[in-house]
Design a protein that fits this description.
This protein is α/β, with parallel strands linked by helices and about 230 residues long. The protein folds into 2 domains: about 120 residues, Rossmann fold (3-Layer(aba) Sandwich), CATH 3.40.50; about 100 residues, Orthogonal Bundle (Arc Repressor Mutant, subunit A), CATH 1.10.10. The protein is built from 8 helices and 11 strands. The protein has a 5-stranded parallel β-sheet, sandwiched between helices. It has a 4-stranded antiparallel β-sheet with strand order 6-7-8-9, with no helix packed on it. The chain has a two-stranded antiparallel ribbon with strand order 10-11. The protein is elongated and about 55 Å long. InterPro entries: CheY-like_superfamily (IPR011006), OmpR/PhoB-type_DNA-bd (IPR001867), Sig_transdc_resp-reg_C-effctor (IPR016032), Sig_transdc_resp-reg_receiver (IPR001789), WalR-like (IPR039420), WH-like_DNA-bd_sf (IPR036388). It comes from Anaeromicrobium sediminis. Keywords: DNA-binding, Phosphoprotein, Transcription, Transcription regulation, Two-component regulatory system. This is Stage 0 sporulation protein A homolog.
Length: about 230
């Protein structure tokens, strides 16, 4: 995925339109939500690289959205608020925000902070760089070339296997249910197709793991689903 995808969660339409326009001008793909519930739905359904999150939202608050995202993902989050009290900022950072902007703010400043967070989070050899290496070169992944190497030798992943692997790599540290993997990788709604995911995982493990029974990379989280193992 060449373009980084940003989710903007804001219930004030004018602010939403301006932020979206500035971010798109910078080359980002932008998804939007005007309430917390929809934001969480999009986060589960799509690959997201950064969230711009208003605190004062209908249905589900920005604090709740941030907390729920943080239970499964480390992606950058920038919080927006009309409140300028220091306690509010401390609270926002304490529940997992990476940065904080008080309204009214300059769209150019927001773009600058987005760029800075993107550089830190997705710098070369970070979990979302285009070229990744794991365990001193044991596994190499070139996202742009759709290329995977194991111990220096090319691994022939099918397009669907690569899509699934890319979901894991694009969401560092996140635990996925089979339902989420189906939707994020293939756009499928859950309808008893969990065996499809299990089959793909089994095939990927056969190609990239030294020990399929004790996998280093795609690990089973019992009772939940799967995650990509921590890089070493």
């Amino acid at each position: 995925m060449d373009k980084k995808r940003i989710l903007v969660v804001e219930d004030e339409q004018k602010i939403l339109d301006v932020v979206k326009a500035y971010l798109k001008k910078e080359g980002y793909e932008v998804l939007v939500a005007t309430n917390g519930e929809r934001a969480l739905e999009i986060f589960e359904e799509e690959i997201i690289h950064l969230v711009v999150l208003d605190l004062m939202l209908p249905k589900t608050s920005g604090e709740e959205v941030c907390s729920k995202i943080r239970t499964t993902s480390d992606i950058p989050i920038i919080m927006l608020t009309a409140k300028n009290e220091e306690d509010e900022k401390i609270q926002g950072l304490a529940i997992g925000a990476d940065d904080y902007l008080t309204k009214p703010f300059s769209p150019r400043e927001l773009v600058g902070r987005v760029r800075a967070l993107m550089r830190r989070a997705y710098r070369e050899n970070s979990p979302l760089a285009d070229y990744l290496t794991f365990n001193d070169g044991d596994l190499e992944v070139n996202i742009k070339r759709f290329e995977v190497k194991k111990k220096g030798k090319l691994v022939n992943l099918t397009p669907n296997e690569f899509k699934l692997l890319n979901v894991f790599l694009s969401n560092p540290g996140q635990v996925f249910t089979r339902d989420q993997l189906l939707r994020k990788a293939f756009g499928l709604e859950y309808d008893g197709f969990d065996r499809i995911i299990d089959t793909h995982i089994k095939n990927i493990r056969h190609k990239i793991e030294d020990n399929k029974k004790k996998p280093t990379y795609i690990q089973t989280v019992y009772g939940v689903g799967y995650k990509f193992g921590d890089k070493k």
